[in-house]
Predict the 3D structure of the following.
Amino acid sequence: MENKKYFKDKKSKLIFGIFAGVIFGLALFVASPYINTIILAVIVSYILQPIYKFLTKKLKTKKISASILSTALTVLFTLVIGALLIVAVVNIASIVLEQVNNLRVENNTTVEDLKNALTWFNNQMQILNIPVEITLQEIITNIKNSVSTIANNVLSAATSISSFSIDALFKLTIFYGLTYTIIPHFDKIINFIKNIIPFDKEITSLYIDRTLKTAKAMVWGMLLVALGQSLIAGIILYILGTPYLFVIMILLVLFSFVPLLGTGMITLPIAAIFIVGGQVWKGIILALFQIIVIGNVDGILRAKLIPKDVRMPIFVSFIAIFGGLALWGIWGLIYGPVGFILLMTTIEVIQKYYIPSTKKA
């Protein structure tokens, strides 16, 4: 039987290209509420490829069984971590509320120094005829009110998350279903994308490989940095005799995702509590440890995790991360760097492939 060739003329190719583009655009528009879930499923499927290939080759497991096992690992990891975080957040908020309600300022050298400093400040304000007077009791009251409000809001949010909305359940189902579907067909999907993009295979592979590597590095980077900072902070907090160590470490994992300040939003207030409570050296040691050691874990681990071909200059990384956060929230930690690595890849393609081609022409 003779093989029939289709789309021989340019007109039919153009019309079909427009038609296919419209269909893909419509599908993307319909799926837009779940685009973050879809992208996360693709990234997780890419991360799980080594495990999937190990299961299929080394253990002689069928592809469908390997996909089930790989997805089961994802389900177990996400559900266990999610449950631990919710329980920890509820416990932390409850403990904070209890401690804040029972907060008392005891007389000690540090407190007396603070009172003297406030008295000096108030005297200076009077000399300058500025009607401002601050007392230590007012500061404590404001701190108690602020912390109580935050803790109550966190408690309400954690309670609402634990009740699980229909939308969250649906997104989780989509995520697990897509992960199970994509894992065994990941290489085929990548090859299909490479074939439909009208660039040379070398250029297309460059874009796709760097996009996947950057997304994988950012996801792994966020998780490992969070765990690393929490573990290191937990060690120094244990040495200093800090109570509620486990829940504080869980809180450190959560706050490590916050750029710039990160774990310092937890450790520095604890250091301040040490100082106010008269344990000055403990507070100073913790504050210095946060600035010198814990705060630098991020840069050290990311430098090890991010492949050389997707690393960006530090100022570009700041723009990518903070710009991404401003536009897409927490997802910007992935989208921002991916967008900028695509930009840098485009510049490289122009220098290596596009300009030499135009010169030859």
About this structure: The chain has a mean pLDDT of 77. The two ends are 42 Å apart (CA to CA). The chain is about 80% helix and 0% strand.
